[in-house]
Write a structure and sequence with these properties.
121 residues; alpha+beta; Aspartate Aminotransferase, domain 1
Length: 121
């Protein structure tokens, strides 16, 4: 998990006002230390997956799970809210991972922080 977690950490570190702490025993990333947008799970309750669970825009979960069920899944506990699971142990694409995490951030961050992502570098 350490290399996958390091990559998730490096992606989250580029997003404004992001913090990390354990939540329910898993590394979890928050906006302004309040709203969760991504959690890293390693073999959650014996499911055998190294994956992230993250916020997703409406309809994306269904679309991605249908298109790539070997990589994407409906996570327990938060899947009913539209959250998306992405396996990190199956053909991981770090650019895609960055895009998924950034979209998750956009789903929960205040508009003022999302606007910072859209500002020219």
């Amino acid at each position: 998990m350490s290399s996958a977690l390091a990559i998730v950490r490096s992606i989250c570190a580029t997003l404004p006002e992001t913090t990390e702490r354990l939540s329910h025993g898993a590394p979890t990333f928050f906006v302004r230390d309040k709203k969760t947008f991504v959690t890293v799970h390693d073999d959650h309750h014996g499911d055998g997956r190294l994956a992230i669970w993250c916020a997703a825009p409406p309809g994306v979960q269904e679309q991605m799970v249908e298109a790539e069920p070997e990589r994407y899944f409906r996570p327990p506990y938060v899947g009913h809210r539209g959250w998306l699971g992405l396996r990190l142990d199956v053909d991981r694409d770090d650019d895609e991972l960055a895009g998924v995490i950034t979209e998750a951030y956009r789903c929960v961050a205040p508009k003022s922080l999302v606007a910072q992502l859209d500002e020219p570098a």
